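Risk register update: the risk of archive-format incompatibility is retired. Evidence:
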Amino acid sequence: MKHNFGAGPGILPHEVLKQAAQAVVDFNGIGLSILEISHRSAEFEAVLDEAVKLVKELLEVPEGYSVLFLQGGASQQFAMVPYNLLPEGGKAAYLETGVWANKAAKEAKYFGALEIVATSKESNFTYIPKDYTVPADAAYFHITTNNTIYGTQLQDIKPSPVPMIADMSSDIFSRKINVADFGLIYAGAQKNMGPAGTTLVIVKDEILGKVDRKIPAMFNYQTQIEGGSMYNTPPVFAIYVSMLTLGWLKAKGGVAAMEKENNDKAAMLYREIDRNPLFKGVAATEDRSKMNVCFVVNNAEHEKPFLKLCDEKGIVGIKGHRSVGGFRASIYNALPTTSIHVLIDAMQEFAEKNKA
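Archived output:
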């Protein structure tokens, strides 16, 4: 058995994979694969409707927001956000907490002025800046709620005086949020929602239509809303698997139940990291991510042997991002608690074998 700690595309529930595999051969008994049905068919329209309904239900999306399933990943949203929301001559504010926040900010520079309200770059993004002020004259304020590479997460999201835009790619559906606090939320599916190929966007309708520039149809949120996420052929399979995953999450008790389970999994693993003399965490304790647990060995010579032990025990995807090294255990919604136990057992066994 494999224990998948990969950062993304991440682990999916086993029962979802079984349903999706069957649908690839024969979708709902219609004699056609989900890969070959028309996106305009009644069968797929029902899938899309159910996916949107589940998003609204699980996140308690209030009236006045539209839910979209788009393509291009979160990286395309880095450009779509300022394209649609940053007026010519206007200014956008960004909180820089990692590589992806930095990339999002760089895209905004093509459309207007940019203000980085705070950054933790000087510490290699090991903490979340907290002492900053959001400028009241900004068109919007952009945050990245979880930073997969560095293992940090915004634990307390402060209200913003301007529309708040959040990249929630790696922690969407992992904890309760108040959607009304945000002007727009976006998330690549491939961490907690489904396979790579679709991106969830939840946007407050009233913040749109306030820029004068002409926006190409594919990059215009209003066009996508009017087209019901089907202005062009949507990523049918990715949306279908996302629908299945959201249904699985609902059956488990919804986001609140998932948040409790995620908190328990993270606490268990951090407790071992702090206790074990061979390992140490890299993120500031108060900013530790519940989704991506980053840690290192105290002795660099132990890194390869520990990776070898993990491989022998079926633990995969544990190697840290190439830019920071060490280890990263991504413990997304679908990762069972049993896999956390296997990793902890491996850490304890390694420490026993390598006593000073």
